Amino acid sequence: MIVYALIIRSKDGLPLSARTDFSDEVNRNIKENKKYVKLVGTKAAQVPEKCVLQLKDYTIYMITCVGVSYLVMTEFHYPAALAFSFLNELMREFIQLYDSNKVNTARRPYQFIEFDSYIHKTRQAYNKPQNLASRVNLADLNTELKLRPPYQLSLTDVEPYINGNKLMTNHLPQLGVGPPPKLEPMTSYSWVAVMFSILLILLGCTEDLWHCTNLV
Fold first, then answer.
1. Cα–Cα distance measured from residue 2 to residue 132, given in angstroms and rounded to the nearest whole number
2. 13-27, 90-104, 167-181, 183-197: which has the minimum mean pLDDT?
3. Nearest one of 23, 134, 6, 1 to 77, comparing CA atoms
4. Which of 18, 121, 148, 158 could form a disulfide with 39 if both were Cys (CB 3.0 to 4.6 A apart)?
């Protein structure tokens, strides 16, 4: 069964539309695993156009085209061919409705939330595969997946972003790495400045000594 769908702008992860009929959200397991959909979306600009992340009870699929990424979370045993077919249908319809300029100039999250009605209708159809016989050729879809298998993401690819580990380690000082710092030789200008400073100090001391002698 298709559980959740999300459409994002690939370059910055801005959510553009999503499934909003959360009647089955009473399932805590679904809520906990939905976070991985957004985490996979953060990788869209760094990974191939077709990806899969396998979780314990669910599978997340993603395709990217023309700067937009389409993601779906399905139950573990839902056929991969149907999941990618579902995403392809969303992609074709979304591209017809919204051109690249509208996507690139979007400023607020879920600016195209009205597309949810199409997500909902398509999800209902794909959750009854017996009704898709005349619409989807599973044999051809499975052959395509064998010839062009999706990139397999691992949990380690996305989990560090949950607590920001990757962001933090990028800014930590690298202690004990590389050769010790070397002292640079002083330039002639530096030597002159040092000698001038010493001369001023000596003159100051001489003047203080003269004042002390007069006082005595």
1. 14
2. 167-181
3. 1
4. 158
- How far apart are alpha carbons 58 and 27 in whole angstroms? 13
Q: What is the pLDDT of residues 121-168, one digit of tens each?
A: 999 999 987 777 667 777 888 898 899 999 999 888 887 644 444 543
User: Roughly what angle, to the nearest 10 degrees, separates helices 80-97 and 138-147?
Assistant: 90
| Residues counted in the chain | 216
Which domains are delineated in the chain? 2-155 (3.30.450.50)
Q: Which two tokens stand for residue 187?
A: 């330039």
Measured distance CA(6)–CA(42) in Å, rounded: 12
* Phi, psi dihedral angles at 118 (to 5 degrees): -70, -40
Cα–Cα distance between 204 and 94 in angstroms, integer?
A: 81
Structure tokens at 216: 């005595």
Q: List the structure tokens of 155.
A: 């949990």
pTM of the model: 0.71
